[in-house]
Write a structure and sequence with these properties.
heterodimer; A: about 240 residues; alpha/beta; Rossmann fold; eight-stranded parallel sheet; 7 helices; 8 strands; about 30% helix; B: about 350 residues; 2 domains; seven-stranded mixed sheet; five-stranded mixed sheet; 13 helices
Chain lengths: ~240, ~350
């Protein structure tokens, strides 16, 4: 991250992050939480991450619990002591603690696709419109969200399942370690088109730190957001023909 | 599709096998491959195919048996305990020479085990958990792209050999994302073409001809002749279907043998060893049956040890010993239970082994 770069701070206390499998919701949530913990996120005293992913059995933000908690960000997830290896569709009752704590900023990482968004229904009464910002992460390299129609269909399905409107888009168009600036640009153009047609705001443009150079991104977009690849150990990208 | 897309392993496996010509899917959900039936239920009808959720894994494999016997290109997928339930069906499919493509996204065992990745199904898939003498080609890709390429070819391979073909990945490969290229869709087999393309199939369309697809052969001499026929076919498969990738084995001081996810970890460990001045090589079996025993003949005279790296208590190591034929010491590096070693763990254990064999 460029030293001068300040991350965009969510305008409301509760940030709900939805999106397609592989859009990079979890990487966005973990990077934002660690970034805000370092940078500060006034006016709230506390910062927490709620992992509501009941869809994926692997690669969930609760796997980064130790790192997040070292940075001062408690993680709320499964009832079984933050059990990372269960496939039980259950969530801890204490997840509502940061949702009702008026002094706590909370990032809510929701499971993939519209089916993952369904879980938000049970927390609807805690997610008041004036207090909640709903962002949907878009990766234009995912086959289902490669064009504006695909993204809008996906938005409609997510909104129908979670019972709330999405407020803005996060462009996280990437190909993991094969991402380049053109890739980010392609996603930016797609998100702009969707925003034009829906009235949504393009909230930020993400890029993988260390893969795409900050010089190529910062200054080009209003709100650049470097992501840390916390969920992606390097050996997963070792290639075989 | 000429541009790379980012896909989750399980979705990519399903799409690749459809593009390879599969039009029938039978399955029962089990983690970590449930995205496959989910994807198939949504996408296969768009290609003119049929998705059927079975009442159990036993139902799924027997539906695939019926589909294959009728000449259809079927696909089933499951994970370790589900594959265990299907073993009887695999023996029947091999005996009746019914082509079908199977995928096992293996997880921790024994028993119901865990949902984290494992490779302890090696013996189950290469030796057969079903009864009787039978064999099935098993391919173990190490990347999602390699899995796509194998699954794309698998329906044609199963048809060519009139035999089930298994693709073994582990749960991690099913769950991870990778930028991939999808091949152009093949023309699927039409029902009207089955009597010509698969004259042995029970297509029910020709007067006067009668196809019989069965595994029951009560007369001993008839069954013996059939099993001899199967093994003549397996012998040809052993010559034609071996796939392996080797790296630096000629000059290596230590040669690793690893497949799937473990091969990725080993590759990272090899780079670290290389930076420490240890020459390391790798034999990466892509076909687990037939096993690439000949690849071990390429190992050079500098070799001090051959290390089988596995996510099991040591199953492939038996094949490694058969390939090594006593020429070098054979050792095992492993983790189980869904645990993965780090590349540094592999480096440290390798250095200990090299000290011990010196």
């Amino acid at each position: 991250m460029g030293e001068a770069l300040r991350l965009r701070v969510p305008e409301r206390r509760i940030l709900v992050v939805t999106g397609h499998y592989g859009s990079g919701k979890t990487e966005f949530c973990v990077s934002l939480a660690l970034g805000l913990a370092k940078q500060g996120h006034r006016p709230y005293e506390r910062l927490a991450l709620a992992d509501l992913d009941i869809i994926n059995p692997y690669f969930r933000s609760r796997e980064r619990r130790a790192q997040l908690e070292r940075a001062g960000v408690p993680v709320y997830g499964s009832a079984y002591g933050h059990e990372v290896t269960a496939e039980i569709p259950e969530l801890a009752a204490n997840i509502k603690a940061p949702l009702v704590d008026a002094g706590c900023r909370v990032i809510v990482d929701v499971g993939g696709n519209d089916s993952g968004a369904l879980v938000l229904r049970q927390f609807g009464k805690y997610l008041r419109p004036g207090e909640t910002l709903n962002l949907c992460v878009v990766n234009a390299n995912r086959p289902e969200t490669r064009d504006a129609e695909g993204v809008m269909e996906h938005l409609r399905a997510i909104e129908a399942n979670m019972g709330m409107r999405v407020d803005g888009l996060v462009n996280n168009t990437h190909l993991l370690r094969e991402t380049d600036a053109a890739c980010v640009g392609k996603g930016h153009a797609l998100c702009e088109e969707v925003c034009r047609r829906t009235g949504l705001e393009l909230w930020c443009d993400c890029y993988p730190r260390g893969v795409v150079s900050a010089d190529e991104i910062e200054g080009r977009y209003a709100h650049p957001m470097p992501l840390g690849l916390y969920m992606r150990p390097a050996w997963l990208d070792i290639g075989f023909q | 599709m000429s541009e790379k897309v980012l896909m989750k392993g399980n979705e990519a496996f399903a799409e690749a096998v459809i593009r390879g010509g599969v039009r029938f899917y039978f399955g029962y959900p089990i983690t970590p491959q449930s995205e496959i039936p989910e994807f198939m239920s949504r996408e296969l009808p768009k290609w003119g195919g049929k998705f059927l959720q079975a009442e159990s894994e036993l139902g799924a494999i027997n539906m695939a048996y019926g589909c294959g016997a009728a000449g259809g290109n079927g696909f089933i997928s499951s994970s370790s305990p589900g594959i265990a339930l299907m073993q009887e069906g695999m023996s029947f499919l091999c005996s009746a020479e019914v082509p079908v493509v199977l995928l096992n996204a293996s997880r921790g065992g024994p028993g119901i085990g865990s949902i984290q990745p494992g490779q302890a199904d090696y013996n189950q898939v290469t030796r057969g958990g079903g009864n009787g003498d039978y064999k099935m080609p098993v391919f173990a890709p190490a990347s999602i792209q390699e899995a796509i390429d194998i699954l794309y070819d698998a329906p044609a391979l199963a048809d060519q050999w009139r035999n089930p073909v298994m693709v073994l990945v582990d749960g991690l490969m099913g769950q991870m994302m990778e930028p991939v290229l999808m091949p152009e869709p093949k023309k699927p087999l039409e029902s009207a073409d089955i009597p010509t393309v698969k004259p042995w199939a029970i297509s029910g369309s020709e007067k006067g001809t009668r196809s019989v697809v069965k595994s029951l052969r009560l007369q001993p001499e008839v069954l013996e002749e059939h099993v001899e026929h199967l093994f003549e076919k397996y012998g040809r498969m052993e010559k034609e279907l071996v796939r392996v990738e080797t790296e630096n084995v000629e000059n290596a001081e230590v040669v690793f043998v690893a497949f799937g996810t473990m091969a990725r970890l080993v590759k990272e460990a090899m780079e670290i060893l290389e930076s420490q001045g240890v020459k390391a090589g790798m034999i990466r079996p892509i076909s687990l049956w037939p096993y690439p025993y000949e690849a071990f003949d390429k190992i050079g005279k500098n070799c001090k040890a051959v290390i089988s790296a596995e996510l099991s208590m040591g199953q492939m190591v038996q094949d490694v010993k058969l390939g090594v034929e006593g020429r070098w010491p054979v050792r095992l590096i492993h983790r189980v239970g869904g645990m993965l070693p780090t590349s540094l763990d592999i480096v440290e254990k390798t250095r200990k082994i090299l000290e011990e064999v010196r």
